Amino acid sequence: MAAHLNLLATILFVLILISTGPRPSRSARIFTIINNCKETVWPGIFPGENFNGGGFALRPGQSIVFSAPVGWSGRIWGRSGCIFDRNGNGTCQTGACGNTLKCSASGKTPATLAEFTLASLDFYDVSLVDGFNLPMAVTPINGKGNCSIAGCDADLRTSCPSELALKANGKVVGCRSACDVFDTDEYCCRGVYGNSVICQPTYYSKKFKEACPGAYSYAYDDPTSIFTCSGTDYVITFCSSRYRPVCTYHDNKLVCGGSNGLRSSAGRWGMAVLIALPMIITL
Questions:
Q1: Where is the signal peptide (predicted)?
Q2: In this structure, is residue 32 part of a structural domain?
């Protein structure tokens, strides 16, 4: 029941956004970001002009909705273990974009990274090339084409090789990439290894790929890791299965996607949506 309430809270927020605010253009993409972790996550977005300046806090169970225009190209990641003062200055254990809440640059490695290029045909992926800090899934809804779910829903912090582990207060908070740790051409796919023929999966990238087949494990992992979709909305979820159903509001209908594909979800959720309203973040 709690899972349904989280889901419906997100849906209602989209409904309110569309019915009371400026209507997004037909070509805009709706991004719904959900925190299903047991801890607060501070999403970072770069460039962040369309995303509340590129940084904010999401407590467990909270969600937020944005609209981005076609032509936007950027990245979304989660920051963990952050402490910010009332002026938005502070630090994070992982994913920090300097010492500010609002990100004007990419996050510090290691960080699980969702990448998007919005065009007539969108390109998107979830990358572990710069390491891992939080499970993340990207689910496209309402689109046409391949539109596969991207992401890494395994928690690599629990299985990270000791030589790659990033620790804070004795706890593993991230799993670094082999390139970041060893800084060699082979692991970083540079120099003579700077092409897809020579740069092949390594022991470490194979471990990442086994745990997260729907994410980039190294620089030339394109065939199984980059996805395309047209005219889609996106749901970005932290700490949730890639196959857990998610919903958005599209063409005056509530539409859900996930392990069972797309389906309409009309009126029967009404009362539960009203109950779930307090769980939505307000900025």
A1: 1-27
A2: yes
